[in-house]
Amino acid sequence: MKKTINLILRHVLLAFLAFIWLIPIVWLLVTSFSAYTGMNTSTFFPEEWSAVNYKNLLFSADSVAQFPNWFKNTFIIACFTCVISTIFVLMVAYATSCMRFKMRKPLMNVGVILNLFPGVLSMIAVYFILRTLDLTNTHLGLILVYSAGSGLGYLIAKGFFDTIPTSLREAAYLDGASEATIFWKVVIPMSRPIIVYTVISSFLVPWMDFVYAKMMLNSGISSQWTVAIGLYNMLDKSLINTYFTQFCAGGVLVSIPISALFVIMQKFYVEGVTGGSVKG
Questions:
Q1: Cβ atoms < 10 Å from Cβ of 132
Q2: Under 8 Å CB-to-CB from 198, ≥6 apart: which residues?
Q3: What is the distance between the alpha carbons of residues 173 and 105, in angstroms, rounded to a whole number?
Q4: pLDDT 10s digits, 231-250
Q5: What is the separation, in whole angstroms, between the first and last Cα of the chain?
Q6: What is the tens place of the pLDDT at every residue in 117-127?
Q7: 34 phi and psi, to 5 degrees?
Q8: pLDDT band at 77 (very low <50, low <70, confident <90, very high)
Q9: C-alpha closest to that of 54 among 42, 43, 68, 72
Q10: What is the number of other CB atoms lying within 10 angstroms of the CB of residue 186?
Q11: What is the pLDDT confidence band of residue 277, given thresholds at 50, 70 and 90?
């Protein structure tokens, strides 16, 4: 009886926390279908319902709301960053897990320590370096910013590679395989869960970032913005009464691709996290 009561109490607590967590998401969703264009906090649900916000956002772009351009820019930046970052992370993880060389452990410790500091601490230095190279206000510069230090997040992937039997690599060595061959043809085919985890994590960084994007794309040309900058601009005090419900609709649309990706890849994502936590 005591176990049953504890189980019920835990589930009630989890249900209550889930309810609290879902309130702002539900409010964002229902507000996006409001016929009123401004912010209305007098009622939780809209008094009049309409899908015009989605129509205006997707098919009636103006000088303020250029959501298709923002979505395209963000998607391109996220895809390139995802590919480059994933390759960097997996290569660094393989080198630290499967290869032995001088200064290996000190370099691993330095990488972990550097990764403890928030990236925003270096954003001023990064900005001036890229401005010197004439890479500010370009998507290429933003991709370089997101990708350059991604290798420091190697630790979970290394933990997963540590679980792969050493005998497989040793057998490949005996057959005359090089490190590159072992990496691409032995280790990578067995590492689908950690690859999925790394891909999703790398994709999320540019998809959700605002700080670096706002700092780098500061020319004022709205067609070059990412989704985060564009939606934030809609909350300007001179625009919020006209574009707030479109902002909510944009928030819903932005969440759809990444939510679908999580649902489809959830099994591999969880396996990657748990597999990477077995060994350090």
A1: 9
A2: 85, 86, 89, 90, 157, 272
A3: 23
A4: 998 888 888 888 888 999 99
A5: 41
A6: 877 788 888 88
A7: -80, 145
A8: very high
A9: 68
A10: 17
A11: very low
What gap in Å lies between CA 154 and CA 55, rounded to an integer? 42
278 SS3 class? coil
What is the Cα–Cα distance from 63 to 100, expressed in whole angstroms?
Answer: 56
Token pair, residue 209, equals 């970032």
Q: Note the pLDDT tens digit of each residue in 156-185.
A: 888 888 888 888 888 888 888 888 888 888
Task: Compute how many other C-beta atoms are within 10 angstroms of the C-beta atom of residue 149.
Answer: 16
- Tell me which DSSP letter residue 42 carries: S
Question: How many CA atoms, within 13 angstroms, populate the side-chain half-sphere of residue 72?
Answer: 8
Tokens 């540019």 belong to residue:
206
The pLDDT score that the predictor gives to residue 280 is 45
Asked if 9 and 213 touch (Cβ cutoff 8 Å), the reply is no
Q: Cα separation of 219 and 78, whole Å?
A: 21
